[in-house]
Design goal:
Helix content is 33%, strand content 19%. The protein has 464 residues and is α/β, with parallel strands linked by helices. Helix 4 links the parallel strand 5 (88-93) and strand 6. It starts with a strand and ends with a helix. The mean pLDDT is 95.
């Protein structure tokens, strides 16, 4: 990703003119040749449309990028790399309300390719990001690419051990401390729910709990506020004994998307050396099927001491998050964020592009909303609707992991379950999808980084 946005360039440059529909119309009226090309290509300046205008010698003379007629954001620049031939470009014209930083980051995000198994052919176009903080854009784009790469990688190459290796590499890079508790050690360390969910996997894919601790380098970090980032790391979810149908299991390699996002967000915070202490907590398991798998009706212990009835073995993510959120409580954070590919109900409610979040903290919610809009990184608040809480009541345990059938708000009841284990201070739960089911310009099908750019901005501004 570092080679697609440039700070300096002394070679040939192709100008890009980013124009509204009205601006494109005016530009084409003054250029008969370009107007004829536009008519043939049905280019009208709609958001994300690109018109390549050649010079007399056949080389590329300039590019017109449509921004549409509605409210403008940087999204059109994210679609640009997939539509440009190799070369180096500069933004010659763009609206004042879209900054150079936004353009550089959008271009970098739109340049992403997952080529581990099927190498992409050809060079990528590059952008001379004049006036932008290129180092910052690169760090954020690298972190988002990390999350997308992890989600895209199939479970045979992205098991618990591989997630641990990535966590160790990040910790080493930024001088953080890391501890890993694995297998039967989870019982000794009092992570019983993590152990119960992951114990059915093969020994080489044993469950583990990963904790990264970091403070700004060269500073006395003891007095800095602590931010806890918790991520669900189910490397593959068969559904357990309540096995998923094949269609539901097909993309379950992405069920570790919460852990991938937690690592990516943590990497952003550490790379920027924000004035906070950081704890990244990752319960990592495979929800496999074997003779040792947890069963519907089992009663599990939890780190908090609450007994949990397993109503459905396919509601495993909230079980491992319960132990992780309890660990967060023990650290007394100033802010807790958890991210998980948790419920299909969230997708039914809002679709794949708009992840919901849950918090009772109105001030925190407002900060998230403002930051998400600023970063063009959409999220939507859903309520922690207390009248649904009794759907989690159990006749034989203190709580159960699946709601009674009458409670149809599955993402809400999942969030209410997590709230029973979350720290009492500011806490937000994000039910992300981490996936583009179909490609669109700037958003290829497959793994997607959601919400973390907005969350990074929120953390930066909240603790400035």
């Amino acid at each position: 990703m570092s080679d697609v946005i440039l700070e300096t360039w002394d070679g040939p440059l192709t100008p890009v003119h980013a124009l509204s529909e009205a601006g494109c119309t005016a530009a084409l009226e003054a250029d008969a040749f370009a107007a004829a090309l536009a008519k043939t290509a049905e280019f009208k300046g709609k958001a994300g449309q690109v018109l390549l205008v050649p010079a007399a010698d056949g080389t590329l003379d300039r590019v017109l990028l449509g921004l549409g007629s509605g409210p403008r954001d940087s999204g059109a620049f994210r679609s640009l790399p997939a539509k440009l031939p190799p070369g180096v470009y500069r933004i010659a014209e763009s609206p004042e309300d879209i900054s150079a930083d936004q353009i550089a980051l959008a271009f970098a995000l739109g340049s992403y390719r997952f080529d581990r198994y099927k190498p992409a052919k050809g060079e990528r176009p590059r952008l001379l990001a004049e006036g932008a903080d290129v180092a910052e854009a690169r760090q954020v784009a690298h972190a988002c690419a990390l999350a997308r790469d992890m989600v895209n990688t199939p479970a045979n190459d992205m098991g618990p051990r591989q997630i641990e290796s990535i966590a160790r590499e990040i910790a080493e890079q930024y001088g953080a401390q890391i501890t890993v508790i694995e297998g039967e050690g989870l019982l000794e360390a009092n992570y019983p729910a993590v152990h119960a969910v992951g114990r059915a996997a093969d020994p080489h894919r044993a469950p583990r709990f990963i904790e990264i601790s970091w403070a700004p380098e060269g500073k006395d970090g003891a007095d800095k506020p602590l931010v806890c980032i918790v991520g669900k790391g189910v490397v593959f979810d068969t559904g357990g004994l309540d096995i998923k149908p094949s269609a539901g299991m097909r993309n379950m390699k992405k069920d570790m998307g919460g852990a991938a996002h937690a690592l990516a967000l943590g990497r952003m915070v550490m790379a920027a050396r924000l004035p906070v202490r950081l704890a990244v907590l990752l319960p990592v398991v495979e929800n496999a099927i074997s003779g040792d798998a947890m069963r519907p009706g089992d009663i599990l212990a939890s780190r908090k001491g609450l007994s949990i009835e397993v109503g459905n073995t396919d509601a495993e993510g909230r079980l491992i998050l319960a132990d992780a959120l309890t660990r967060a409580c023990e650290l007394e954070p100033a802010l807790t964020i958890d991210m998980a590919t948790l419920t299909g109900a969230a997708r039914i409610a809002l679709g794949p592009q708009l992840p919901p979040y849950f918090t009772d903290d109105d001030e925190l919610s407002g900060q998230i909303e403002v930051a998400a809009r600023s970063e063009n990184d959409p999220v939507w608040r859903l309520p922690l609707w207390k009248p649904y809480a009794d759907a989690l009541d159990s006749d034989v345990a203190e709580i159960k992991n699946d709601p009674d059938g009458w409670a149809q708000a599955g993402s809400v009841t999942a969030a209410l379950f997590l709230q029973r284990f979350a720290p009492k201070g500011p806490w937000v739960h994000l039910d992300i999808f981490a996936w583009n089911p179909r490609g669109r310009p700037g958003f290829p099908s497959g793994g997607e980084a959601q919400a973390i750019r907005g969350l990074y901005r929120m953390i930066r501004e909240r603790f400035a």
